[in-house]
Amino acid sequence: MAIKMSSELLDGCVLGILEHQDYYGYALTQRVQESADVSKSTMYPVLRRLKKNQWLTTYDKPYHGRNRRYYRITQSGKDKLVGIKKEWNQFQAGINNMLGSGEQDE
Amino acid sequence: MNNYIDELSKDLKALNEQDRQDIIEFYTEYLEDGGFKTYDACLQELGSPRKVALKAMADRSTRASDETGPVNNNYRGNSKTDAKVIWIVLLAILSSPVTIPLALCIILFLVFIPAVVVLSILCALAISIFFIFASAINLISISFISGLTMLGIGFVFIGILLLFIALIQLIIHWIRIFVSWIYRKSTSKGKTEGGND
């Protein structure tokens, strides 16, 4: 696909997913891949960046004798998500305005 | 899977223990959760350990130099980390065959030529300082005033040398920002808008 996901947008997507429920790394990667063609090795840097910015926190939960690390969105992560959504809507509206929106109007 | 993780761990040598541990834990958990048992299955899922390592490291480094990053106020005189960042990003660029001509240009212009120039100037300065002090010691026994003057000139040269070293650190820092920028452009993962770059 010629259109690439920017890192800002990917941050937003991950925050958007985590807004509904906490995920562990593998499941989160699967979830993102359901909707977007994103390289699996980009997930770690994204999660690390989000954590560094304190938009998410992590906690460990035992699972079959080992730990799974879960990611949970923070309040500032939710605020950030609102900002990204707003920016995306503007961006999307602008592009649609030029492309012609999804409706078949030709 | 263990082989894969071992290899990944080796490729992460450039990082400190804590960062490496963090990455290893993430991918160990990931591969266990996904049920990828053989080396080939892991390779299929994530790509080569080297690619995974470079991605984890290069991204961290370029991000750390973002103006927006909250934890980047330890730049000053930190050219050791700067050099490391440049090295990692160069490796990352080299690992992609498409960018080899670009990488060669960058290596040539950003590393080798400046390195030769800088080393020559450093050597010239060091040798000058040595001879100025040597002749100052000789002169002092003949003419005290001329000896002192020579000594003064020697100190001026030491000053120039120190200024020069500070300048080099500054330049390395700029190069680091530039290389990070190139890296972001070349992976086309960067922002599509002008944004806050």
TrEMBL record, chain A:
Residues 14-81 form the Transcription regulator PadR N-terminal domain. It comes from the Bacteria. InterPro entries: Metal_resp_DNA-bind_regulator, Tscrpt_reg_PadR_N, WH-like_DNA-bd_sf, WH_DNA-bd_sf. Pfam families: PadR (PF03551). PANTHER family: PADR-FAMILY TRANSCRIPTIONAL REGULATOR, TRANSCRIPTIONAL REGULATOR RV3488. This is PadR family transcriptional regulator.
TrEMBL record, chain B:
It comes from the Bacteria. Keywords: Membrane, Transmembrane, Transmembrane helix. Pfam families: HAAS (PF22564). The keyword Transmembrane helix applies. The chain crosses the membrane at residues 85-113, 119-140, 152-175. This is Membrane protein. It comes from Philodulcilactobacillus myokoensis.
